[in-house]
Amino acid sequence: MDSQDHLLAEARRYGYIEGDQVWLRPLLDLPARQVGQVKESADASLVYFAQRFTLFRTKVEELLQKIEESENKGSFLMKALHLKEQVGSYDALGDFEDLYRRLTEAEESIKVTINRNREKNLATKIGLIQEAEDLHDTIDWQGGTEKLKDLRQGWIKTGPVEKHLVDELENRFQVAVDAFFARKKEFLAEKKAMTNRVYDQYKDLIHKSEALQNSNEFEETTRKLKQLQQAWKEIDGSLPRKQANDLWTRFRAAHNHFFERLKVHIESKRQELPAASSGNPGEDNLTRKRALVAEAQALLKQPMSSAVARAKELQAAWKKVGPVRGEESDRVWEQFILACDKVFEMSALEHYMRKRQPGPEQNTPQEQATLRIQALREFIKYDQQEQEVLNENLDKLNDSPGNEAFRTMLQGKIRAFDRKIRTKNDLIAMFQQQAVG
């Protein structure tokens, strides 16, 4: 049977001639319908409409092949639906029912793929939201900003989800992003305000020093300048390195100027400074100091407001106790100052945590401990930065006798930062035990 005979047989199977009209037999739920008119002859007309079906079938099969080979099958859904609609209206004779079935199977397969992809996209977006929300308590602002930048890129690249979920997901993701940047903005504003306060404190000490640098009241001015040096040492906060160096240089210049004048004055008067005498410590002084150590070490278990006040009272009491001989003096002092430092550092930490979260804490004790560990590590970074500036300033000092007071002051302040860092690490170790539960 040649192709023409085959086409004629197919045409007669699915269609027929009635009068001068070519009809397609009923298919699916559709009644018989007219597809054309007889032109040259009945057989030629039947073959013509069978050939038209062949063209239509080729279009369907080409589309099905593309769907099969494509990774993005969802992009062909509308084309499949369009061809499926044409099944009921295309003027041709052939097995439209088979084409309809194949297009329906393709449509269902595409929808399954689309739904599967949307479920996958939903899971991905929920994961991105959770990662953004996990930044709620971080104080690593640079790392958090980079993380959110990556999460945004991931969000953009993730495909669509069900339409009724779009607004809810977008809003939840944006709320998490906005919350991080609001906290970052508040932190930077607070840091700037603190920097301004620190700068003003340093400038005030500089102005007072410069006002005294030409004084001829040598004994009184020496006492005042040493008080200013101690006040400089006790300023709590950091500045940008260049700014800190410039202020320190100006402060040191005023003091150097006065003490060079003092040196000349002493030489001209040929005065001798009386040597300080040391008393003989009594044995009971060690017992009294050990008692103060024990009480200071117990303060961490008290409310911070009363603990800080009591620590200051204990420090005042310590000064009134006489000296202790030998190595035990250093040991008991180290124990005492470490215990007091822990109280002051703990008080500063709790003040910071209350500012971050005004109301009662909703976290578990383990979570609270973890948050405090994060904060203490961030504080240690600032301590180390400021200590580095002090070390640089110490290295710049020449061996002039006029710089000896500054050298001693800088070394004292560096040791103070060593203590602060060690104390914070001790508190971190304490909170790590709590975090483990």
Question: How do the helices and strands line up, and which of them pair or pack?
Answer:
Elements lengths: L2 H12 E4 L2 E4 L8 E5 L4 H28 L7 H10 L9 H38 L7 H17 L5 H50 L5 H17 L6 H29 L13 H15 L6 H17 L5 H31 L8 H32 L7 H33 L1
Antiparallel strand pairs: 1-2, 2-3
Structure characterization notes:
This protein is an all-alpha fold and 437 residues long. Helices cover 75% and strands 3% of the residues. It folds into 4 domains: 3-118, no CATH class; 119-189, no CATH class; 191-271, no CATH class; 363-436. The chain is built from 13 helices and 3 strands. The radius of gyration is 43 Å and the shape is rod-shaped. It starts with a helix and ends with a helix. Residues 53-80 form a coiled coil. This is DUF349 domain-containing protein.
Give a short overview.
Helix content is 75%, strand content 3%.
Radius of gyration: 43 Å
Strand order within the widest sheet? Answer: 1-2-3
| Mean pLDDT figure | 85
Q: Low-confidence segments, ≥5 residues, pLDDT <50? A: 271-280
Query: Which oligomeric form is depicted?
Result: single chain
Q: What is the number of helical segments per DSSP (H or I, 4+ residues)? A: 13
Order of helices and strands: HEEEHHHHHHHHHHHH
What structural class should be given to the helix and strand makeup?
Answer: mainly alpha
**Helix percentage:** over 70%
Keywords: Coiled coil
Coiled coil: 53-80
Protein name: DUF349 domain-containing protein
InterPro entries: DUF349 (IPR007139)
